[in-house]
Amino acid sequence: MRTLPLTLGFMPLVDAAPLVIARELGFAEEEGLALTLQSAPSWSTLRDRLVLGQIEAAHMLSPVPVAMALGLGGLPTQLDALSVLSINGNVIGISNALADQLDTAGSTPDFLDAKAAGAALSSLKKPLRIGVPFPFSMHAELLHYWLAASGLNTAQALDVRTIPPPLMADAIATGEVDAFCVGEPWGSITVENGGGTLLLPGAAIWQFAPEKVLAVRHEWAASEPDITGRLMRAIWKAGRWLDQPDKHATAAEILSWPEYLGVSAEITERALSGNLLINARGRSRHVPQMMDFFAGAATFPWKSQGAWIGARMAARFGLDRAQSAAKAAAVFRSDLYRRHLGPLGADLPAASEKLEGALSEPTRAATDSGTLILGPDRFFDGQVFDPERPEC
Prior knowledge:
Layout: E1 4-10, H1 17-24, H2 27-30, E2 33-39, H3 43-51, E3 57-61, H4 63-69, E4 79-88, E5 90-95, H5 96-104, H6 114-123, E6 128-132, H7 138-149, H8 154-157, E7 158-162, H9 168-173, E8 179-183, H10 186-192, E9 196-201, E10 210-217, H11 218-223, H12 225-242, H13 248-255, H14 265-273, E11 275-277, E12 284-286, E13 291-292, H15 303-317, H16 321-331, H17 334-341, E14 363-366, E15 371-374
Parallel strand pairs: 1-2, 1-3, 6-7, 6-8
Antiparallel strand pairs: 3-10, 4-10, 4-13, 5-8, 5-9, 11-12, 14-15
Helix pairs in contact: 1-12, 4-16, 12-17, 13-14, 15-16
């Protein structure tokens, strides 16, 4: 089969793994694609390359296509989220100085307890400089949601600064920020370098947060349906491969190559397994659902996930919540997922939206051909988001 060349962009993060594995283990070639993977220095650069047509698809922050649909960020191009690349994968870290303050105050929360961690930060009663990789990101949405629910007036108490992921460890080590929310491996690099302590995994705030998506220009997906389908199938196969724990060591070794992450395979494997080292004293914790690429319909682009992001952005930027939720839901292309992945045997939920945050344990859900098991998706404060009532 003649292979078609396709250029994909990514940021050097563990959750870029589906793109890397699709290329390196031949899943793209099975679909007749010759992938070129292009690393970007920042999320804004990656977004602009996609918008300008310099690349065909990208490993992208899930809120970026939503922000563009809502007219935020100054770029009018419509992007589609063809599938979810990864669930969770972020960590929240604090400086050593802030960790010492919490210790002195007797507030050292359990690593998986978002309520206690939020209360500890609120008790400091001081503005916090927090680094995030991009203003339109799950990092920013989770931070604002978590800290507001913990009693902080985020408009007054947070000084949010944009720092590319590979620079986050340096930013906290040099005192540029007091805390950060970043994707792995860069939180673990901070601990490895002795520059800070991990306080909380993102999964403790929302157990099933759509972190990255496979993003393309809307017009490209419409004009290239065959290539779109091939790309989606290759990435889906890579995610299925990554779902197997016995493949983590191989995946970590590949991701450690200089053209991808350029960090040790040992650190990368921690993120894949969820066994994180959280401070320089060697304390470790296992994080359930630290990062998922396939299980529990992880790759399905639920319209309700898009709606949640849209509603949260509307609240932060003063937009109409119902209209924003509807526009955001349209970005998550469950229709294309069904069309291109159904014939491959992918689990297709019977509905394309659900109550977000309603599942506290693995739950059977109807599919087009039977049932699948959806994993827990609770928010730390017990809230449930109904996409039919986004204004609530």
